[in-house]
Amino acid sequence: MRNVTIDNITDVVINAMSPDIAPRNRQIMTSLIKHLHGFAREVDLTFPEWLEACEFMRRAGDISDDKRNEFILICDILGLEVLVDMQDHRVTDGESESTVLGPFYRENPPVLPKGASIIQKHFDNSQTVRVSGRVLDTAGRPIEGVTIDVWEDAPNGLYEQQDPDQPDYNLRGRFVTDANGEYAFVGIRPEPYPIPYDGAAGELLNYMGHHPWRPGHIHFMLFKDGYQTLISQIFDADTKYLDKDSVFAVKESLIGQMRPAPAGADTELVMDFDFRLKKAVAKTLIAAE
Ligand SMILES: [Fe+2]
Q1: Are the beta carbons of 122 and 188 closer than 8 angstroms?
Q2: Among 127, 120, 114, which residue's Cα sits nearest to residue 258?
Q3: This model's pTM is above 0.85
Q4: E strand or H helix at 200
Q5: How far is the CA of 174 from the centre of ligand 1 (A)?
Q6: CA of 246 to the centre of ligand 1 (A)
Q7: What's the 1 CA to ligand 1 centre distance in angstroms?
Q8: How far is the CA of 284 from the centre of ligand 1 (A)?
């Protein structure tokens, strides 16, 4: 094609794709090219603006490593991670809602017995909370043997891998539901924290006039063979930023109430929260005709 114009460039690029590529590749790239070109036309994007966007993405790549993925943060700020999560985990049978995984999950946390504490280091400004509840199927029957990974930030707003002064795997644990589907652990009241804003994600927040703060929350991942894995968060009902989450992850059904613990309890607060898991879709092999 030698006669590329403002009017035909979109079709020219789409038609340049090989007829041999996978249908999903074609679907994704056709739509991406249309929307990308449409965006550039709509805002009449200038050459310096486009170049600055390329430099921005280069800086995002430069600050990323195996512990930090700046592109996930950028997607969070743009609401893309939560949109994709909602599309990919539509609630159909009354199961618990999912929300974003976030960048701070670590595999293989310490395996702890029911009721154990995930606190390895004391912070003066923290309140302890006993979190407990049941894991049920969508018919309300308890599920035994569900693995539950939990993780949360310390009162200084940092996850342990961001903070050299916290012990390895501090405020992380892996629990398993008992025969009644019950789980319990002791953690601390989670504090609001800013998502990392010292890199390209911070530049984008400034550009958009938005803040980096997240409401206090505890992360959960629940999994058991035969059920759909649930990645979610419980939000403290009394935390700041509940209606202004910088990554748009809050859902009404995921708000938990922390109450003063009864007299004689060994934590200051208690919170009950039940989860419901949906059966996994059976993978059936369909014989080729
Ligand atoms: Fe978090």
Answers
A1: no
A2: 127
A3: yes
A4: helix 200-208
A5: 17
A6: 11
A7: 49
A8: 36
Q: Is residue 118 helix, strand or coil?
A: coil
Q: Are residues 137 and 213 in the same domain?
A: yes
Residue ranges making up the domain that contains 131: 92-277
Please choose, from the candidates 195, 278, 188, 168, the residue with its C-alpha nearest in 3D space to the C-alpha of residue 232: 278
Residue 228: how many other CB atoms lie within 10 Å = 16
192 CA distance to ligand 1 centroid (A)? 9
- Let me know the angle formed at the C-alpha of 257 by 253 and 260, rounded to the nearest 5 degrees: 170
Do 39 and 103 sit in the same domain of this protein? no
Q: Which residues of the chain have pLDDT under 50?
A: 288-289
> Could you give the number of structural domains in the chain?
2
Task: Provide the pLDDT for residue 286.
Answer: 55
131 occurs within a structural domain: yes
* Calpha distance 122→240 (Å, rounded): 23
